[in-house]
Amino acid sequence: MKKNVLVGAAIGLFSFFLSATIFQFFRIGGVVFNSGIIAAICTMLLCDRRCAFVAVLLYAVFVDLFVSRLLGVNLSIYLCMLVMLGNLVDEFYVKSVTLPFILLALCTLFYHAFYFVVMYVTASLLPAQDIFRIVAIEMLYNLLVGFFVYRAAFRVVRGHSLGKENV
After folding, report:
1. What pTM does this model have?
2. Where does residue 52 rank: exposed (0-12), middle (13-18), buried (19+ CB within 10 A)?
3. Per-residue pLDDT for the chain (167 aa), expressed as one digit of tens each?
């Protein structure tokens, strides 16, 4: 139990520091992939709910404190996303090769839909003409990076390659 909390804390902090520093150099079209979504999916599917909750909680709090325009927006988005993933995780076959693609796409769409609604309601600046371009680029970027991260994490946690049974 204590180990899961420490692993979740390490994943959340590591994900935030990488996304706030090094990953800023890997922009495509002015968009950085969302490492919080990738961390949420990997920890929820490969670890457990407690580990995922701690990782997402720390990541979202740090993003809200240091990066976001509004306090609490990312925390509420990621916690809602985690609740949905937690309700669905028992229904999925974790070894499926298509599962990371589906979850990354859905979570990216959910994140941006929630984020843009909150920003619209609070009358914050929205790049309305760029919304679809930003979401499309980030979704493709999340799919590309997230799939390789999920495969590597799967190999470390499960001990064999994704899509193959341990023989």
Report:
1. 0.85
2. buried
3. 677 789 889 999 999 999 989 988 988 888 888 999 999 998 888 888 889 999 999 999 999 999 887 888 999 999 999 998 888 877 776 677 788 888 899 999 999 889 888 877 776 666 667 788 888 889 999 999 998 888 888 888 877 676 665 54
